[in-house]
Amino acid sequence: MTNDDIVDMLEARVPLAVGGDLAALSDLIGLVRPKLKRYCATRVSNSEVVADDVVQDVCLALVSAIPKYRDVGKPFMAFVYGIAAHKIADAGRKAASRRAYSLELVIEEPFTEESPESHAVEGELRTHAQALMNTLPPRHRKIVLMRVIWGMTAPQTGRALGMSAGAVRVAQHRAMNQLRAELSNFSLLTA
Q1: At which of 88, 103, 118 does a domain end?
Q2: What is the pLDDT of residue 132?
Q3: Which residues form a coiled coil (predicted)?
Q4: pTM of the prediction?
Q5: Mind listing the pLDDT tens digit for each residue in 95-127?
Q6: Buried (b) or exposed (e) across 110-120, using 16+ Cβ within 10 A?
Q7: What is the DSSP string of 10-32?
Q8: Distance CA 46, CA 51 (A)
Q9: Which of 67, 135, 138, 157 could covalently link to 146 via disulfide, CB atoms 3.0 to 4.6 Å apart?
């Protein structure tokens, strides 16, 4: 079916659908749905928004809006695309608000009673970890912090430090080997 055929069929069915003919309304939805799918798929930029969901919302809104539709000299699809643009924007806002208030971001920490002993042990571990990190050259220390503690990727770390991702990986490997050697020396001293 060509685009001209679809336009002709829309022109014939829109007045009937506006008048309350449910069969014409069903035909109308069937004609605009494929165009809507393409339109929404190209305009949905948020990965959390599914184009098919937006198409469904547009079709529901179209069913509600058809009785109020008035021909003002523009193609009917302009009316449909106007509704679609609003529904795409709504979906994007909803996705953003879900992201902002997502319960997945809330980290549940197990309840632990802080005893003076556990607090002292944590402080001592922190002191030893800091002393161990201080054995590294400043650049290696930054790389370990960025990669291991902060969870940054090698390319991100490289951009931050002006290095290639490969150089970051090599430096991280050397730093971790140095930390292992220092840790084994520390274990021998305390044993």
Answers
A1: 103
A2: 86
A3: none
A4: 0.50
A5: 776 665 555 555 666 656 677 777 788 888 888
A6: eeeeeeeeeee
A7: HHHHHHHHHTT-HHHHHHHHHHH
A8: 10
A9: 157
Is residue 114 a part of any domain in this protein? no
Report how far residue 176's alpha carbon sits from residue 165's, in angstroms, rounded to the nearest whole number. Answer: 16
Q: Is residue 89 part of a domain?
A: yes
Count how many domains the chain has: 2
Q: Which range marks the domain in which residue 157 is found?
A: 132-190
Q: Are residues 88 and 11 in the same domain?
A: yes
Instruction: Note the helical H segments in 44-153.
Output: 51-65, 76-100, 116-133, 138-144
What are the CB-based long-range contacts (under 8 Å, 24+) for 164-168?
168/143
Give yes or no: residues 86 and 136 share one domain. Answer: no
- Same structural domain for residues 140 and 180? yes
Which structure tokens are listed for 110? Answer: 């197990």
Burial of 143 (0-12, 13-18, 19+ CB in 10 A): buried
Confirm whether 122 is domain-assigned: no
Across the chain, mean pLDDT equals 84
165, 158 contact by CB (below 8 A): yes
The enclosing domain of 157 has a CATH number of: 1.10.10.10
